[in-house]
Design brief:
Helix 1 packs antiparallel against helix 2. It is globular and about 80 Å long. The longest helix has 23 residues. By secondary structure, it is an alpha+beta fold. It contains 25 helices and 24 strands. A 5-stranded mixed sheet has the order 2-13-10-3-9. A 5-stranded antiparallel sheet has the order 16-15-14-17-18, with no helix packed on it. A 4-stranded antiparallel sheet has the order 5-4-7-8. The chain is 37% helix and 20% strand. The chain binds 2-(butylsulfanyl)adenosine. 2-(butylsulfanyl)adenosine binds next to strand 3, strand 8 and strand 13.
């Protein structure tokens, strides 16, 4: 089909799509303020890909379609930096920071405090980006500071790297910054690597480095990398700003992601205070930082101060305590989780890692133990970061001790363990008759994102189970104050509070209830998707695997777990009992008004008189289904302003199309 000539309307549509996608990209990857659902973004991108395939002459290098990665390269070319990429000196204490400031004051012959910009020190890979007339020309690694490797085709796949600047700051401009991998992305990447028995990365930094050094940029494209700019290198055509702080602001306007935690400090105290605050924040961030960087704010003063050997005199790094430490593996416990998965947990010689004492770390599964080649008594490297459970990263010193033996039977109920073909997880198949799985399921049922029963934590669950008061989630709603207060360490008041919390939890929402059931692979998001699709519990319980597969984001594995869960007689009994015991949620559909039952709506474009969530809720309240994508099963497409490819598709399929006004009319009519 290629070779067709693009007429004006097509060229205009391509331009419009590009502009929309660049804008959405910027909002999503740079500003963290997405304005359309992912599925809609994908549709726009697909439409652009189609048009570019049909009319290749409309394809440009800075098109958002050009981030998917190119054919593998043979090797990386070595390139020379236009200005060397320097490193930083370190300060390890407040005194050393003070000495740094004093050195600057004496060199400048000025006793006033020089304003300082304080920035998180990102623990990633330094990258230089060269822009020629506002277009990305070359991306390179730091290498030895003078020469690096040309990694342009890989860096182009990172969405937060602008391919064209939003504001052309100079004819030729080198932007420097750090490529990091998010912690959550790193966890996911390693999780799938473990499942596929592939190489896992020790930390997000190594994962970022490994991802940037892929000869096949399609692999890089699949990795959750982001770029944050922190300075400029080479610049042609005059000054851009007077200070580091203003420069960063300009780079932000040009389309770069700038770390939001950057601040100006006007005294040593505010510098110290920044360090303390950042140290507190460190664990909450979704990317690793290994300290912070203090930089003299005035670019003029930076110039006057200059460099010494490989580092600037105007900047210094203040490092945080390391997040990786070595310690000794004392033993391994095996824990059985809610779904029966058996996880080996390392018992460690307690060690302080990044300011927190760690005495346990996960070893994930049997394969991970083999991969690490770890034995009892070995020296091991532990890594903890954020909320993530501490991990054993590697063996640092072999102690020649015993091999770790994975149990053959469940450590809790003695049932022989199973490992399904091709799966890395070893499971106890006993289900709720295994005390560990029973306990964990009850805890999950009461947890914050599920029924949120305040006060019903793990210790109390254990006590209640041991006292024979709790077996299934339904038993929770049969508990009485006297029974609870008779437990050890339980007063009358706490018992009463717990009963009140249980009472309050009877009124819940359907998504919470579905999540609380603890179906394998059904997290909050899936529970939400299932309930908005099926509208009520009965429909969901009766759904076949085929019907479940129609739900957005439900794949075959999840569908089979859901179907199996509801096929189980004992699960159905517990659900019945819960409903009889008074658990309920305001009915969004079915009972009062079924006016739109059986209709599947898709909302697209921007609505002006209500948000999409409001429209979805109101439609569901009338029994309609609201889906994310247009298919032959769509009954009505509501097209708001700037509707794009969904509208085109709906037109092709002959789907009925409504305006927002028509939707509102319909909603009002049925209310
Ligand atoms: S400025 C001449 N700012 O730290 C000063 N560097 O140890 C050059 N880094 O190679 C660097 N975050 O990769 C600067 N906010 C930040 C940084 C930062 C991380 C890295 C950078 C550099 C290394 C120096």
């Amino acid at each position: 089909m290629s070779g067709a000539e693009a007429g004006e309307p097509v060229a205009a549509e391509v331009e419009e799509l590009k502009a929309q996608l660049v804008e959405h990209n910027h909002r999503y990857y740079v500003l963290d303020q997405p304005s359309i659902p992912d599925a809609e973004y994908d549709q726009l991108l697909r439409r652009l890909q189609q048009l570019e395939q049909l009319y290749p002459e409309l394809k440009t290098d800075d098109s958002p379609t050009q981030r998917v990665g190119a054919e593998p390269a043979a090797a990386f070319e070595s390139v020379e930096h236009l200005l060397p990429m320097l490193s930083l000196d370190n300060a390890f204490s407040d005194e050393e920071l003070q000495a740094f400031v004093e050195r600057i004051q004496s060199r400048l012959g000025d006793t006033r405090f020089p304003d300082i910009t304080a920035e998180p020190k990102l623990d990633g890979i330094a990258v230089s980006l060269l822009y020629n007339d506002g277009k990305l020309e070359r991306a390179a690694t730091r290498g030895d500071g003078r020469r690096g490797e040309n990694i342009t085709s890989n860096v182009r796949t990172i969405e937060s790297v602008p391919l064209s600047l939003r504001k052309n700051l100079a004819p030729r401009l080198e932007v420097r910054g750090e490529v990091v991998m998010s912690r959550s992305g790193f966890e996911k990447l390693n999780q799938s690597a473990r499942e596929a028995n592939d190489k896992v990365f020790a930390n997000p930094r190594n994962a970022a480095a490994g991802s940037l050094r892929q000869l096949d940029s399609r692999v890089t494209a699949s990795r959750p990398l982001q770029f944050m700019a922190y300075s400029i290198g080479y610049l042609e055509g005059g000054e851009l700003a007077g200070s580091q702080f203003e420069l960063l602001k300009l780079l932000g306007e040009a389309g770069f992601r700038i770390n939001p935690l950057i601040e100006r400090c006007d005294s040593l105290d505010s510098c110290r205070n920044y360090y303390e605050r950042l140290l507190q924040l460190r664990d909450e961030l979704d990317y690793d930082i290994d300290g912070l960087v203090y930089k003299v704010d005035s670019l003029l003063l930076q110039q006057r101060l200059g460099f010494v050997s490989r580092a600037p005199r105007w900047a210094i790094a203040r490092k945080f305590p390391a997040q990786e430490k070595s310690t000794c593996l004392l033993g391994v416990d095996f824990q059985v989780g809610r779904t029966g998965a058996v996880t080996p947990v390392a018992r460690l010689q307690p060690v302080s890692v990044g300011g927190v004492t760690v005495s346990n770390a996960t070893l994930h599964n049997r394969d991970e133990i083999a991969r690490l080649g770890v034995r009892i008594g070995d020296g091991v490297v532990i890594r903890r970061a954020g909320d993530v459970i501490p991990q054993v990263v590697s063996v640092s010193e072999s102690g020649g001790g015993e091999e770790i033996e994975f149990p053959v039977n469940c450590p809790e109920c003695n049932t022989p363990l199973e490992q399904a073909e091709g799966e890395v997880v070893t499971r106890c198949p006993a289900g709720l008759s295994c005390p560990a799985q029973q306990r964990e399921s009850l805890e999950h049922f009461a947890s914050r994102k599920a029924l949120d029963i305040d006060g019903l934590g793990s210790k109390l669950v254990v006590q209640l189970v041991q006292a024979g008061l709790l077996r299934t989630p339904a038993d929770i709603f049969r508990l009485e104050v006297e029974q609870i207060s008779s437990l050890e360490r339980m007063g009358e008041k706490s018992a009463r509070n717990l009963c009140e919390a249980i009472e309050a939890s009877r009124k819940t929402t359907l998504p919470r209830f579905v999540y609380a059931l603890g179906i394998r692979e059904v997290g909050e998001a899936t529970a939400q998707a299932l309930t908005s699709w099926f509208g009520d519990l009965q429909q969901l319980m009766q759904a076949t695997e085929e019907q479940l597969l129609e739900v957005p984001d439900v794949g075959p594995v999840v569908a089979s777990h859901i179907a199996a869960f509801f096929a189980s007689e004992s699960n159905r009994e517990v659900i019945d009992e819960l409903l009889q015991l008074g658990l309920y949620w305001p009915q969004p559909s079915g009972t009062e008004n079924d006016a739109l039952k059986g209709q599947t709506f898709v909302l697209t474009g921007s609505l002006e008189q209500m948000t999409r969530e409001q429209a979805t809720e109101q439609l569901q309240a009338l029994g309609a289904r609201v889906s994310g994508s247009v298919s032959a099963k769509t009954s009505i497409l509501v097209a708001g302003a700037k509707a794009g490819s969904k509208l085109t598709k709906a037109e092709k399929l002959g789907v009925e199309i409504w305006t927002e006004d028509r939707l509102i009319e319909c909603l009002e009519q049925h209310q």
